[in-house]
Amino acid sequence: MADYDYDLFVIGAGSGGVRAARLTALDGKRVAVAEEFRVGGTCVIRGCVPKKFMVMASEVSHALEIAEGYGWSFADATFDWPKFLEAKDVEIARLSGIYAANLGKAGVELVHGRAVLKDAHTVEIIGKDRTITAEKILIATGGRPWKPENLPGIEHAITSEEAFHLPELPKRILIAGGGYIAVEFAGIFAGLGVETTLIYRGPNILRGFDDDVRAHLAGEIEKRGIKVVLGCQHEKIEKTETGLVNHLENGMKLETDVVMFATGRIPYVKDLGLESAGVDLNDAGAIRVDEYSKTTADNIWAIGDVTDRMNLTPVAIREAVAFHQTVYRDNPQHFDYEAVATAVFSQPPVGVVGLSEAEARRSCSNGVDVYVTRFRPMKYAFTGSDERVLMKLVVDADSQRVVGVHIVGPDSPEMIQLAAIAVKAGLTKAQWDATCAVHPTMAEELVTLKEKQSPATSAG
């Protein structure tokens, strides 16, 4: 057998790459991981973790409004953007340090630099005059934001990555996009007092989610002061002395201080040297892999967003575990992508697991039963707020299995994690109904829904 520098070389020290590297090193293998930026990857450094901090900071303004209805007074409440950024950056640095320390404790060598494949067993660390060989290679480079580079004035726009480091909080922002990143940042900036406009070329936000969820959330975020413009996109961005003028296809002109594009993310494969190693891309530009995450090169695997299968941090981690079991434990495993719960940290947030109503109607041979409730939660009803919660169960009419759960409202990400256990376990509507409610809570509605929605009133 050839003598390689390492048994496994991992390109990318995000959540998936770090997990795979640690598990393999703990098995006694020689492992190294290369990272060109900071250990922790998208989630920890420029994704879900700092974004969640921003969500929590921005939610305080709404909490203060509700608190006044309960007799509290906060006449002098203010928000300090630079102070928040400093605290956020300190915490991100701490978390990145923990990731790096855990690699070291496991015996993984951390290589700081950009790794490029020279052939199927060789990588070059750019600018470090170092070439490394490995028996096996794992690619876990994640994804990066996409924006339309051919749009006139696009050089004046930012993406989500720059949004984490704005030197000052803008007074006005326009966010282009209708996915979860766009919706989440719209809630963040609106909650921090920024005049916020969300534009999306589609007929409604959150494409791919249940239609009831999409319609309900669109109405609720407008109650939070976000202006939503649908069926429209940019013609150009014009920089003036007073700001950025957004020229839209419908003839509207909106001047803002910041324009942010949240129009999707693409696999980070640019200049990675994939062709030199015999690694193919699929039609969508992601690394082509089989069900065990193996690429078209015999000794190279890929996991996480770079494969564009299900772009969620916990999924990348589970793919890493399956890779390790398959390759180093002689225990072939692949991740099951069915009934994976997800959350959108919009304001109000969304929690979803399983099939939308439309998906269920296509896949359930004898139809579906749908249960929907919309109500003012106790907390808001007390203050006179008109904010409403949506809860929806989608049930296979034949088996009576609950195949989809959709929640829009406070604490929905927390509720959906537990609901996902029941959906993954294949529990029936009767078993949900047999579960005693916890009163008074919002979640009790999930086990007290009794009346089916008629097909004529269904949005799905």
CA-to-CA gap between the ends?
A: 57 Å
Strand content: 15-25%
Beta-strand segment tally: 21
- Proportion of helical residues: 25-40%
Number of DSSP helices? 13
Whole-angstrom Rg: 24 Å
Runs in which pLDDT lies below 50 for 5 or more consecutive residues are: none
The largest pleated sheet is described as: 7 strands, mixed
Short description:
The chain is α/β, with parallel strands linked by helices. It is 32% helix and 23% strand.
Structure notes:
It is a single chain. The radius of gyration is 24 Å and the shape is globular. It contains 13 helices and 21 strands. Strands 1, 2, 3, 4, 5, 6 and 16 form a seven-stranded mixed sheet that branches. A five-stranded antiparallel sheet has the order 17-18-21-20-19, sandwiched between helices. A four-stranded parallel sheet has the order 10-9-8-14, covered by helices on one side. The protein has helices at 15-26, 41-46, 48-69, 81-106, 160-163, 180-191, 211-223, 274-277, 313-328, 357-363, 378-383, 412-425, 429-433; strands at residues 6-11, 31-35, 109-112, 115-119, 122-125, 130-139, 143-145, 172-176, 195-200, 227-230, 234-239, 244-248, 253-256, 258-261, 265-267, 300-302, 342-344, 350-354, 368-375, 389-396, 402-408. The chain is an alpha/beta fold and 460 residues long. Helix 1 runs parallel beside helix 4 (81-106), helix 1 (15-26) packs parallel to helix 9 (313-328) and helix 3 crosses helix 4 (81-106). Helix content is 32%, strand content 23%. The longest helix has 26 residues, at 81-106. Strand 20 (389-396) and strand 21 (402-408) form a beta hairpin.
